Structure formats: structure tokens, C-alpha cells
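FORM 7B: Structural annotation worksheet

SECTION A. Query
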Amino acid sequence: MVSVDEVLQTLSTVIDPDLKKDIVSMGMIKDLEINGNDIKFTLELTTPACPFNDQIEQDVRKAVSTIKGVSKFDLKVTAKVMEGRALSMDEMLPKVKNIIGIASGKGGVGKTTVSINLALALAKTGAKVGILDADIYGPSVPLMLGMGKAMLEVEGNKLQPAESHGLKVVSFGFFAEQEHQAAIYRGPIISGILKQFLVDTNWDDLDYLIVDLPPGTGDIPLTLAQTIPITGIVVVTTPQEVASNVAVKAFGMFRKLNVPIIGVIENMSYFKCPNCSSNHYIFGKEGAKRMSEKYGLQFLGEIPLNSGIMEGSDSGKPVLITDPNSPLSNAFMLAAKNVAARCSVIASQLSEEMKAEVATQK
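SECTION B. Predicted structure
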């Protein structure tokens, strides 16, 4: 007869590569049933986008195979995104598990393109995702998603997000009376608009809310960091040294505000020649990777330079939708999985900190 203790002890040898903890202590084993020598349970992973999900499942099956006497093994694999922010401290967005700000030190690095494709990549894994276009002065998310002039409804004093490709979307671009109308507002008004988009919108049951921030270290990034608890910031830059130098200021501001830095994504990393298949480093090579190593940041991935991104952005057809199996889409998928993995690590650290605080109070 196989015992519960034997199964759990064996499974405790399986370590999550990101969290560096065993899957039993992490509570990833659910609904364990033992009937004679038949074993059945659910493996609940920390996010559907984890890059190590397949490895963890294989390790579980391998571990169970070492238990003597097992005649049948029934494994169900699911995923439940961990809460990467202190929801108990946030009465305004209690149903959003992770808020991820996408920031850059300067404009022109493709931050919005990265934001949209990261959101689409996370949604493709099965996560529930929203995107907030927080660039009030230059909202471009609706155009790049091909949404046009969406009409947002209000129910129960809450703004209902528009939907596109499985994403919940809110943007100031929906409210401009004319397509090229400029937003001429001072900082306090801009901050007020962002707060309304955050707390007066029905962001219901989201695993990830991607916030596309304007470049720089102005009012909007500051408002986001000071209004609600957020999981962390992803900094987008290019290989150029000047871009990396400015990006340092962006994550430096959030570090001063005690906001976790999820990591760095390098956009326009290289151009792959369609004729010779060689990589051409037009803007320099591995600038973001060097910056990450210097400042102790996680390097989340590199996105190649491709004319298809520009064409897709202008026509409202993101590459994750038009060509989901392309090398470019695969690069976004890998970066999204790395972002999700880092969010799980931050969530685990937050959980440990909260447990320690409770223990101290006792």
C-alpha cells in the first residue's frame, strides 16, 4: 500500500527552478487521493506562463515513478497565478493579482509595442490580462490593437474596459474627440486621469494588468508607484549606450520608491538578414545585458528588429496575432514567460515577508 506521507516526501524532492522551493511546501500539490496503489492529484503551477512548467511536470512524473508499488498514476496539471502585490493593503483593485508597469528612460525604444505583445503573449498562455494605456499625452494602444474609436460603457459607476484579442483595454485615446486631438493638461490633471483609469475601472479578476507608461520619470510613473501596490516594473531599452544610460534613471526612480524591478527587455537587439541569416547589430550589441549585470537586474530577453513590427503596429495587427509562430513572436513569448516567472518570485518573497510580519506581531 502506498501512503500519503511517502508520496508527499517523494514529491518534496521536486524543486521549482524559479522559486528554489519544493512543490509540496509551496502548496502546489492539490486533491491528493490514494486508492490502494493508485495515485491521483493535481499539480497547480504558479503561472501558466512559467518557462519551467514542462520541466516541473516531468520531474513530478519521474519522482512518482520511483515510488514502489504504484500501479496507476493520474496527474492533472493546472495553473493559478500568484498574487505579486499586497492585495490586503489595496481596497481599490482587490481582484488584480499583478500590476506590471512597462517603463523606459526615453521615447523611441518601442515600449508600447513591447507592452502590447507581452500582454498578448501572457494571454496566449491562458492568463487573464488587461492593458492600461497610461501615456495620456500620446496614447497609441488603440491604434496598435486596431480598435479605432471604442465606446466604453459605465456600469455601477465603474468604467467597463473594451476588449481586443482577449485583452481588457482602457486608453485615453478612446476619449479624444478627434483622432489627432492633443491632450493639453498639467501634471495634477494627468495624475487624476490615471487614478481614475486605475481605480474607477472594472478590472475584474485579472492575473496581470500591464500598464504602458509614458517615457521618463514624470508625473504618471510617480503616480502609479504611489497610488496602489504594484508587482514591479519592466524597463524597455535598446542596445545603444545612450538608451541604456537613460534607462538607468528610470529604474533608479522606482528603486527609490521601493518598487521591485522585474527586469530589462532589450528591443531592436539585432536584424536577422533574410538572405544570409546573419545577425546584424545595427544599434550596438548586448547593451541592455551589460546594464543588467552592472546593476544586478534580471535580463528578460531580446526582441529582434523587424519591419513587420512597424507594419503591424500601423495597421493594428500585432505580430502575436498575425504570425504567432514566427521567431519574433517566439521572442515575445520567451520574454513574457520570464516576466511571469519573475512575478512568481516576487509573489513568493512577498508571501514570506507577510508571514514573518505576522509572526513578529504574535
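SECTION C. Observations
The chain is about 35% helix and 20% strand. The first helix runs from residue 4 to 11.

SECTION D. Sign-off
Analyst initials: ____
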